[in-house]
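Hello,

Our lab assistant flagged a job as stuck in the queue for most of the afternoon. It eventually completed. Since we weren't sure the result was trustworthy after the delay, we are filing this so someone can double-check. Below is the sequence as submitted and the structure that was eventually returned. Let us know if re-running is recommended.
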Amino acid sequence: MTSNTTTVNASAAGTVTLGGDLTVNRMGFGAMRLTGPGIWGEPTDPEECKRVLRRAMELSVTFIDTADSYGPEVSERLIAEALYPYPQGLVIATKGGQMRPGPGQWTPNGRPEHLRQALEGSLRRLKLDQIDLYQLHRPDPRVPVEESVGTLAELQREGKIRHIGVSNFDIRQLQRAQQVARIVSIQNRFNLTDRSSEDVLDYGERQGIAFIPWAPLGAGPLTEPGGPIDRIAQKHQATQGQIALAWLLQRSPVMLVIPGTSKVSHLEDNVAAAGLTLSPDELATPDQAVRKVQDAHHA
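-- returned structure --
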């Protein structure tokens, strides 16, 4: 843990602007964990979850990411219960396009009628007239990307969505989406060891599209005791998770990180990562370690 856990706030991460008019601190909060096991049902301690959200506001978090499928509906409802009426400058991003048949189960549904229904539900639960950033949760293989994103564009013209984002898209799908709407954010899995969306990140950076990495704390074998991340963490008197977040923030100026938790203490640790600065050698160390792991895997 860093010694400055309670004094560093999210503004230390700098800012990113979504769509030219929404500027948020790059240390955000992911609200997926404010649910039960398997991202299903009510959380074990809903009052602690609400304290997490209120503490995030105190720590200058200005971007919260959620989805109708978290719970389902639980995460959005808790955000409204804890924070409504919302602080000025807070951007709540939510997502639609995933059905939840049961705990740990996710089924894409990008049909226009479902997306309209999902958006209306999110507006109602979040007590909003307009969603600042509404993201298609994932492409539905049964529905053309243009049809799903086109529906969001219609809802945008109706004033119910301010900006449109996409999630779990590759470059080709992103380019297809851009043909029918302005895309201001892309949310894909990305962390120290999973760089499969590196090309999407680089494309987004060139286009001025914010990149929101999910599973930002994943680091796999790099986190072993005495391993490369552990050594960097000890040097900074930080946790390995904080190093993983600091690395992401320094990887790209369009990176908007959203670590999630249901505990106030863990939230404070995550936000404190905004105050860490890694040296060029420290930034390169995970890359070298990943290559070694990959080489060993293919040997």
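-- support follow-up --
The delay was a queue issue, not a problem with the job. The result is valid. The first strand starts at residue 15 and ends at 18. The chain is about 40% helix and 15% strand.
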